[in-house]
Design brief:
Shape: globular
Structural class: mainly alpha
Radius of gyration: 20 Å
Number of strands: 0
Strand content: under 5%
Number of helices: 19
Order of helices and strands: HHHHHHHHHHHHHHHHHHH
Length: 371
């Protein structure tokens, strides 16, 4: 579900700063007429990039086109949990005449402002992306551009656990038009949707199969694919396999400080963050928890309003983790062993969660939890 607000295709205000490719009325007219305007090659150049862990910033610097380099720099800041820096970098490009630059900028801007508790800007970005998709629907001669628009639309809805708009073609049909790194990210999006449907075996098969057929290492989408495997294996109560994927993601992320994906998925990973990072990497753990609180607060303001859901927004991360596992039929003893706590401590956390949610038993937890 997308709630439309009053906006036009180029409605973002950018504090008086105009980017190098900013659009004007003639450019918009040319775009609608199908004229040859600047079209970047890759939607998210850093996400698509091949580099060794620790080389993310170097990959940004190697991008020749200045607008694409700005998008990559914004990605770098976003994945490092630096939402304000991300927002600042892409804001001048929100009205770019290059459709891919504009599309990427809106997507990054929306999620950066979600983490900054500026949800009206996030909602506006969601609307903007959908309107851009409608305006780009004539671009059959630019299949990569259309595939990128489908990826943004489907990815935006998936990460917010919202339905994909009915007029969006299936992402699976568009994936072949994307370069390998973004194709892998698209596989993550589709695997995440399968997870939300409860089809964990299919989700794991898609995710692990996509990793197996890579021809080069694309660290950022690999992180996301490993994390969706964690989510599925924890749902299947296969914690050892979940841990393997978590640590594979962490080894890719840690050298560049790419911690945002872990904060985004904390509530879905069933305490794996606490088990794997809390004792060995306490500083990183604290930073990820901070990201979790900021991202989750904005996420719930969008998700709960759009779906009339009641996903809990008053629990601490540990209370939420215990409640999430309890809602999936884990016993207090099993939760305690998984998190390295005592059973009595788990009981305390659950009692605190019940009190905040206004319930008395674990069978009442499900409506307040993530899928």
């Amino acid at each position: 579900m997308i709630v439309r607000e009053s906006s036009t295709m180029f409605s973002f205000e950018t504090k008086g700063v105009r980017g190098a490719c900013d659009v004007d009325e003639d450019a918009e007219s040319d775009l609608r007429a199908g004229a040859a305007l600047p079209v970047s090659d890759v939607l998210l150049p850093l996400t698509d990039a091949v580099f060794e862990p620790g080389g993310a910033f170097g990959a940004v610097r190697e991008i020749g086109d200045s607008c694409s380099r700005d998008v990559a720099l914004a990605e770098y800041h976003y994945y490092r949990g630096e939402a304000q820096k991300c927002s600042d970098v892409v804001e001048p490009h929100l009205a770019s005449c290059d459709p891919l630059i504009r599309l990427a900028s809106c997507w990054l801007y929306g999620y950066a402002n979600l983490a900054l508790n500026r949800t009206p800007l996030t909602r506006k970005a969601i609307v903007q992306v959908h309107e851009m998709f409608e305006d780009l629907s004539f671009c059959a001669s630019r299949p990569r551009l259309m595939a990128s628009a489908i990826l943004v639309e489907t990815g935006s809805a998936t990460l917010l656990h919202l339905p994909v708009p009915k007029d969006i073609p299936p992402l699976a049909m568009a994936m072949c038009e994307l370069p390998e790194g973004l194709r892998l990210f698209a596989a993550y999006v589709n695997a995440h949707r399968l997870y939300l449907r409860g089809d964990h075996a299919a989700s794991i098969g898609l995710a692990e199969g996509s990793l197996a057929f890579l021809t080069a290492s694309h660290p950022i989408p690999e992180i996301y694919v490993h994390l969706v495997c964690v989510m599925n294996y924890m749902s299947l109560r296969q914690a050892d396999k979940a841990r393997e994927h978590f640590m594979a993601a962490w080894e890719l992320a840690r050298p560049d400080g790419l911690i945002e994906p872990f904060g985004e998925h904390h509530g879905l990973m069933g305490g794996m963050l606490e088990q794997c990072l809390k004792h060995d990497w306490p500083d990183d753990f604290k930073r990820i928890v901070d990201i979790t609180y900021r991202f989750a607060y904005g996420w719930r303001r969008i998700h709960n309003q759009a779906t009339s859901s009641t996903v809990a927004d008053t629990l601490s991360t540990t209370q939420f983790t215990c409640a999430m596992l309890a809602s999936r039929s884990w016993t207090n003893k099993e939760i305690a062993e998984h998190l390295g706590l005592s059973a009595s401590t788990v009981k305390t956390y659950l009692s605190e969660a019940y009190a905040k949610l206004g319930i008395t038993r674990r069978c009442q937890l499900a409506p307040f939890m993530l899928k």
